[in-house]
């Protein structure tokens, strides 16, 4: 009887816990959904701001007056009058046209950010960034201004993500948006949060006796900004829902206990005897055994249960085999690169100490050849990423064809590869790198009927395994990388060897 009551209590408690979790999870999902909505809104705001900047930049009259100010030395106030006349009603807080020795501004907030914006480097493409001021955060879009093919200035359009912007947001059901910087809240349109000390780790805040759940609204392209935007959702609705559910669960528990306890007593008494017959078999399974049983031909409950138990044992045997096979496949996938089938950087870190120790015992040298495909980005940009993948696979096959069975080749990432070879002399390592370079130079990959050729640069580092172990793998790879850098600087398609402060090449560089 006691066991039945405990069982029913556990069932009801589990149901209650699951429902409570579902309600809380639904509230969390609503919070995440609202956050994503505002993140999309901010992204659209960023795009729209960039369009406004382009609109100003493409204005012919603005172009002419900017050219006059930059190249002729005309007064920038004329340009400011043009901006005021044409764009005073633009829904932004500041417009700036700036060049090396001057600027023209429009808007009450323009002077607050003019110095910061004027220091922005002369970019040849559009960009956006943030400027932080006391109790303010400005989103700024900057575009280059070209006059007859020559960049002469830059146009910046800014909007203050402050109280005016927050006022325009839809805050239904008591929800709130506010900015926080270094634990201090500001720019709250309803003056609910001013001067509140905020702890971001809690993700909750209590205001006027009401608790709020908090989530960060990610500001697009604001990696270096210390200001964060928070969305606050009141917990009142969720708590009211939980209260109603508590009452339902209390009445449900009363009904369930009054009906199910007598029925459970009958059921337990009926099934306890046949279940005890299976205790011995389950004990064998607990001891790690999978007994081989014959199927029963009877039709009673215990016979059906026994047959299901036999099926379970057979399924466990199959699952055990599947787990072993999956484990082997997982181990292999964790140390290999999916695209090329080569070993990855993780396996390099695992195998290097073993190779170093073996070379130390044998008294042999170890060579590291670092390879980087030249101008690989151009291959991707010209022929597409599918062509780039084909080139990587073809290059990997060429390396595997050239190296010895005792050598290791790894894909370090992107178009960079590494060969780890023990027992090779300095000249052998250089010849290996040169062999790979020549094979790559003569390799042709055909993509949709079009021939794609590429070259590779190599950096070689050869060292003795009896050196002090204070120089680890990263030091040797760094040396090879320096040699590779020298190969790149020498025109690419060549081999360079690291030897202290001196680099040597096998031949003159070959340009792609």
TrEMBL record:
SMART domains: GGDEF. InterPro entries: Diguanylate_Cyclase, GGDEF_dom, HAMP_dom, Nucleotide_cyclase, Rev_trsase/Diguanyl_cyclase. Keywords: Membrane, Transmembrane, Transmembrane helix. The chain crosses the membrane at residues 248-268. GO terms for biological process: signal transduction. The keyword Magnesium does not apply. One of its GO terms (molecular function) is diguanylate cyclase activity. GO terms for cellular component: membrane. It holds the Pfam family GGDEF. Residues 269-321 form the HAMP domain. Residues 364-500 form the GGDEF domain. This is Uncharacterized protein. The lineage of its organism: unclassified sequences, metagenomes, ecological metagenomes.
């Amino acid at each position: 009887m006691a066991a039945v009551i405990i069982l029913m209590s556990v069932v009801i408690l589990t149901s209650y816990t699951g429902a409570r979790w579902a309600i809380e999870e639904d509230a969390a999902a609503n919070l995440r959904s609202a956050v994503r909505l505002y993140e999309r809104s901010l992204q659209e705001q960023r795009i729209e701001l960039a369009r406004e900047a382009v609109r100003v930049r493409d204005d012919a009259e603005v172009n002419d007056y900017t050219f006059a100010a930059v190249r002729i030395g005309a007064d920038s106030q004329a340009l400011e009058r043009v901006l005021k006349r044409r764009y005073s009603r633009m829904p932004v807080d500041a417009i700036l046209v700036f060049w090396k020795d001057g600027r023209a501004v429009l808007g009450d907030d323009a002077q607050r950010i003019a110095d910061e914006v004027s220091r922005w480097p002369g970019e040849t493409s559009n960009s956006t960034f943030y400027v932080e001021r006391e109790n303010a955060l400005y989103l700024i879009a900057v575009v280059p201004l070209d006059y007859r093919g020559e960049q002469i200035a830059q146009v910046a359009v800014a909007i203050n993500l402050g109280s005016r912007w927050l006022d325009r947001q839809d805050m239904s059901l008591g929800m709130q948006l506010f900015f926080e910087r270094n634990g201090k809240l500001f720019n709250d349109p309803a003056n609910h949060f001013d001067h509140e000390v905020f702890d971001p780790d809690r993700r909750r805040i209590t205001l006027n006796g009401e608790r709020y759940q908090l989530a960060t609204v990610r500001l697009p392209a604001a990696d270096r900004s210390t200001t964060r935007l928070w969305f606050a959702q009141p917990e009142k609705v969720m708590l009211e829902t939980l209260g109603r559910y508590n009452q339902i669960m209390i009445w449900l528990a009363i009904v369930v206990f009054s009906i199910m306890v007598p029925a459970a007593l009958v059921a337990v008494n009926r099934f306890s005897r046949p279940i005890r017959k299976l205790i011995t078999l389950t004990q064998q399974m607990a001891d790690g055994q999978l007994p081989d049983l014959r199927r029963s031909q009877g039709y009673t409950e215990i016979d059906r249960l026994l047959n299901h138990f036999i099926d379970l044992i057979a399924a466990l045997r199959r699952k055990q085999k599947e787990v072993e096979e999956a484990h082997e496949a997982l181990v292999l996938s964790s140390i290999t690169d999916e695209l090329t089938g080569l070993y990855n950087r993780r396996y390099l870190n695992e195998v290097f100490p073993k190779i170093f120790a073996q070379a130390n015992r044998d008294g042999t040298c170890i060579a590291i050849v670092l390879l980087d495909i030249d101008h690989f980005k151009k291959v991707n940009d010209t022929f597409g990423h599918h062509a780039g993948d084909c080139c990587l696979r073809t290059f990997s096959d060429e390396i595997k064809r050239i190296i010895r069975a005792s050598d290791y080749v790894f894909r370090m990432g992107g178009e960079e590869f590494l060969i780890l070879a023990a027992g090779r002399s300095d000249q052998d390592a250089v010849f290996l790198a040169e062999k790979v370079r020549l094979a790559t130079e003569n390799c042709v990959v055909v993509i949709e009927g079009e021939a794609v050729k590429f070259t590779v640069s190599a950096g070689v580092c050869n060292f003795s395994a009896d050196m002090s172990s204070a120089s680890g793998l990263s030091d040797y790879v760094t040396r090879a990388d320096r040699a590779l850098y020298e190969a790149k600087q020498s025109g690419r398609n060549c081999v360079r060897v690291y030897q202290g402060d001196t680099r040597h090449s096998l031949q003159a560089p070959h340009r792609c």
